[in-house]
Amino acid sequence: MHILLMGPPGAGKGTQAAKLVEQFHIPHISTGDMFRAAVKNQTELGKRAKVCMDQGKLVPDDVTIGIVRERLAEADCKKGFILDGFPRTVEQAEALENIVAELGLKLTCALNINVPAQELIERAVGRRICKKCGATYHVKFKAPGKAGVCDICGGELYQRADDSEATMKNRLAVYDGQTKPLIEYYKKAGLYKEINGSQPMDKVYSDVVTVLHG
Length: 214
Ligand code: AP5
Ligand code: MG
Ligand code: ZN
What we know:
single chain, binds zinc ion, alpha/beta, three-stranded antiparallel beta sheet, 214 residues, binds magnesium ion, Rossmann fold
């Protein structure tokens, strides 16, 4: 199972990926999470990525393709992976085609989680993440038992720096301009599948599993 999880910012890629990992035990590779880890560790990559992320812009293709190339070459990706938030440009999609071919792998499908723009801002602005274990919550749609505290590990919840309404508007514009064309790209490649992301999280997940089995 070599799956691409696509969709606009806040669509639920990370939420669905976490459920897939639990069921299928394959690595979840999120370029956004990789960049955030680099920012936290103040590496050179992190310093470069932060400037772009804070403005809601994409990190340059050469940088992003480089980290994905390295990650996909690791042994745990042989039996499968869930790529979340990559590719995001046609250049990245073309590079991925080469990387996968070089590794002797084949993409299973490109799953696009479709959610209307007006719902996405509310999802991002209300998102909270555990500092300790990374679990994702939402103040309205997936509220923790105690505000600001992780149900799983008791860790403190925080808000992502790019989850303000203003930055989210930029992220949505970037998505429309640079990432949306990938829908046509994967339709042409015969890999495209669409999921209705405007449903409760568990229903979205059961649709994901149905599509994967189909
Ligand atoms: P990244 O971290 O990938 O952010 P994104 O694509 O904007 O997506 P999000 O993580 O915001 O949303 P998600 O779809 O994972 O939603 P989630 O499940 O959390 O990228 C961040 C930045 O890094 C980019 O802007 C860019 O700068 C850089 N970057 C990353 N990849 C790059 C690349 N390939 N090239 C260049 N630059 C790159 O859900 C959101 C919220 O909604 C949560 O609170 C959740 O609880 C809630 N929710 C989820 N599902 C539902 C539901 N069904 N109903 C109600 N609420 C729901
Ligand atoms: Mg995410
Ligand atoms: Zn936690």
